[in-house]
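Today's session is about reading a structure prediction critically. Students often jump straight to the picture, but the first step is always the sequence itself: look for stretches that repeat, for charged clusters, for runs of hydrophobic residues. Only then move on to the predicted structure, which in these notes is written as discrete structure tokens rather than atom positions. Here is the chain we will use throughout the hour.
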Amino acid sequence: MELELSYDRLGGRLCAIGDVRITHGKWGGRPQALGPWPLQYDMMGHRLRWIGDLHIGYGRWGNRPRTFGTWDVDCGWSTIPRRVGPYVVGRHGFSGKVRTIGPLAISYDMLGSRPRRIELPKGHDVLPDDLGCVLFLVLHLQAERARGAAAAS
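Below is the predicted structure for this chain, in token form.
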């Protein structure tokens, strides 16, 4: 089964993962909620710190997540995780874009810039909550890295 990723009218903000809505601030800022789970950021508003009751702990220098709830996060030298708890995050060799998260396969739009679909493993009709939160975290970190790269150029 496939889940569609929906974006706003301008195509810049992720608004839904399948049936799970992602709500944004009044003026279109950062996401404020992932379905029923509120999202909280640090005091400066830069780093995502909580998805519902799951805390995201960052490393000493603050830009790489180290924990997600009770799970360890392995980022290596990148800000995009290689593993979140039991879920391995697979990336495309040259572009570094996330292609798999555990059993999920991610496909991108025709230009390869935005994730468009999530393919669930056979026999699964629903995205499990824990895997949905990991999916959102990884896509959020990837989007933040892309925003930072665009601002730097």
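Discussion point for the tutorial: The two ends are 38 Å apart (CA to CA).
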